[in-house]
């Protein structure tokens, strides 16, 4: 890991992916839009090395998935669902209306999005946690139609854990398709997959680029970048635990960013030694080592105030605060996707089980974005109702305001209501 003395602000890039990757994604989207299922099947064969006859996951496949899951794993998934559901239930917002004596009624009507597509990464790995974190808030929001897509294995199936997690959440539409072609199918629709209104869920660079391209045709949650973690620690932190937590994100991706910000030079040195020890016995050592060596950073500063400044500048996806009194620093953290306080709140607690969503803003976007919530699955309509008395009271002011902007028809639309009265029958 690179040891830094200060953080230089870097220009934030507006583009993701290479030109070649963007052009590839654009070509895939166009092909799926024009040729539907056949294009999706062709790309599955090309990229996933699987020949699919049917994109839809049958009930038989789901039932068979249950047979390969042991009861202990099933119980853990169910308990995680309960925790995640309980947390997200507290996020629900209601429609509201206010009334005034003159006959004015104003309000906000909250309506679930009609249909949502959930992308779950797959192929060589299984991510049932992605199913839970994306589907549960949609269910709490009362979305009527939830569609799940995920890349098939070389055997042409989805991982049993993904299927079981989806079934426990009553997802009826599950399709064996991944990559940019899955995003295209969700956005434009095919013979087998009717289009949705919003697409959520993480994926590789091609999925991220595809989501960016289809935004406007559909809504999306966010453009997710590589995983990142910042551990803010003082001399009281345990180096073994800090190193383990940094590696928990480094093993995700060679581009993952594990960062330590500390007031202790001794801790920084010890963490470096611990990283090497733990890397040597990590199954995903090659990936984690590349992440640590290419993107890992350690900042050694004199005061916690300076450390907080670095944290807020990075605006990390995950922030662990491992100091003597972590709760005392919470008011000063302005930018972070999820904040984990204390040594017993290791980042995987939030990834899988505690309840808060693990779909978080990356690449510094925690400056203006929030984690995925129930609010991402509803839309709000303003409601305005004026009585005759209310319009009489304010009509001249409204018409005058319209003319301030040179919009005469706006003004006349108000005034015409009082120029002549049609006899009521």
UniProtKB/TrEMBL annotation:
Query: What residues bind substrate, as annotated?
Result: 227, 249, 252, 318, 351, 405, 410
What pathway is it annotated to?
Amino-acid biosynthesis; L-histidine biosynthesis; L-histidine from 5-phospho-alpha-D-ribose 1-diphosphate: step 9/9
PROSITE patterns given in the database record: HISOL_DEHYDROGENASE
Q: Which GO terms describe its molecular function?
A: histidinol dehydrogenase activity
Q: List positions binding Zn(2+).
A: 249, 252, 351, 410
User: What does the record give as EC number?
Assistant: 1.1.1.23
Residues the record lists as binding NAD(+): 119, 181, 204
Q: Which cofactor does it need?
A: Zn(2+)
Q: How is the cofactor bound?
A: Binds 1 zinc ion per subunit.
Q: Which InterPro entries does this UniProt record tie to the protein?
A: Ald_DH/histidinol_DH (IPR016161), Histidinol_DH_CS (IPR001692), Histidinol_DH_monofunct (IPR022695), Hstdl_DH (IPR012131)
What catalytic activity does the UniProt entry give for this protein? L-histidinol + 2 NAD(+) + H2O = L-histidine + 2 NADH + 3 H(+)
Q: Where is the active site?
A: 317-318
* EC supergroup of this enzyme: oxidoreductase
Family, similarity comment: Belongs to the histidinol dehydrogenase family.
Alphabetical list of PANTHER family matching this protein: HISTIDINE BIOSYNTHESIS TRIFUNCTIONAL PROTEIN (PTHR21256:SF2), HISTIDINOL DEHYDROGENASE HDH (PTHR21256)
| NCBIfam families named in the record | hisD
Q: What biological function has been recorded for the protein in this entry?
A: Catalyzes the sequential NAD-dependent oxidations of L-histidinol to L-histidinaldehyde and then to L-histidine.
Q: Which HAMAP family match?
A: HisD
Protein name, entry field: Histidinol dehydrogenase
Name of encoding gene: hisD
